[in-house]
Amino acid sequence: MEKQKNYSHIIWDWNGTLFDDVDWCIQVVNQMLSKRKIKTLDGILDYHKAFCFPIINYYKNVGFDFSTQSFEELAKEYISIYHSDKTGNCKLHENVEQVLKSVKELGIKQVILSASEKSNLLSQMNDFKICQYFEEILGLSDVYAKSKIDVGLDYISREKVRDVILIGDTEHDYEVAKALNAECIIVANGHQSKAKLKSLGVPVLDDVLHVLEFV
Predict the structure, then answer these.
(1) How many Cβ atoms sit within 10 Å of the Cβ of residue 152?
(2) Across the beta sheet with 204-205, what order do the strands follow?
(3) Residue 118 is inside which H or E element, if any?
């Protein structure tokens, strides 16, 4: 993709792209696996090999047995543990606020599109006092982290959005961008490895700061 200067909107993914929660996600799933005497993930390399969308397939990859407990029950347990963290394990990636501020000064509208449940998403974002940078914050209505494509399409249609780029950290974000007829940039500091993401054929950046070179 060539450098562009005419985007009216940037759609940002949240988890892994702006919000650095990977280490905490590994701790949460390992707590659940250990409780069930299932082999835990040995760090980020194991996590990157297992993580995928839909999330139900990720749960299968790490070894959860759906014959003893449903995906829905496991997802609720995961979310309960994930949002119990009040110790500051998670933070914004480096340079995020600088980038959000610079993009806003360029007059480009910014939107969050996340597979997180909406109220949980807002709670996390409010901790960092960055909501003022976004026109809308779009999340899902439940905790099962199914595709956010429909939510994105509704926004694109409702706001008659053109000239949009989506920035995420996973293959699924690339799939969402295609469904939304959006350009795509991937920042490889989140939930999937750079090696896997480079096969997508879009720019893959090491730091969110480099997004500014494309907008």
Answers:
(1) 22
(2) 136-140, 109-117, 9-12, 164-168, 183-187, 204-205
(3) helix 118-128
Position 145 scores a pLDDT of 44
How many other β-carbons are positioned within 10 Å of the β-carbon of residue 122? 15
> Which whole-number Å values give the CA distances from 24 to 88, 111, 124, in the listed order?
10, 24, 14
Is the pLDDT higher at 67 or at 87?
A: 67
Mean pLDDT of 78-83: 92
Strand-pairing partners, residue 15, are: 19
Amino acid type, 22: V
Q: So what's the pLDDT on residue 146?
A: 57
Q: Output the average pLDDT for the chain.
A: 92
What pLDDT does 84 receive?
Answer: 86
Please give, one letter per residue, the 3-state secondary structure of 154-184.
HHHHHHCCCCEEEEECCHHHHHHHHHCCCEE
To the nearest 10 degrees (0 to 180), the angle between helices 171-179 and 149-159 is: 40
Please count the helices (runs of H) and the strands (runs of E) in the chain: 9, 8
Largest CA distance in the chain: 53
Tokens 């699924």 map to which residue?
A: 172
Q: Which of 38, 28, 135 is nearest to 75 (CA)?
A: 28
| Spatial contact of 102 and 125, defined as CB atoms under 8 Å apart | no
Q: What pTM, to 2 d.p., does this model score?
A: 0.92
Tokens standing for 117?
A: 């449940």
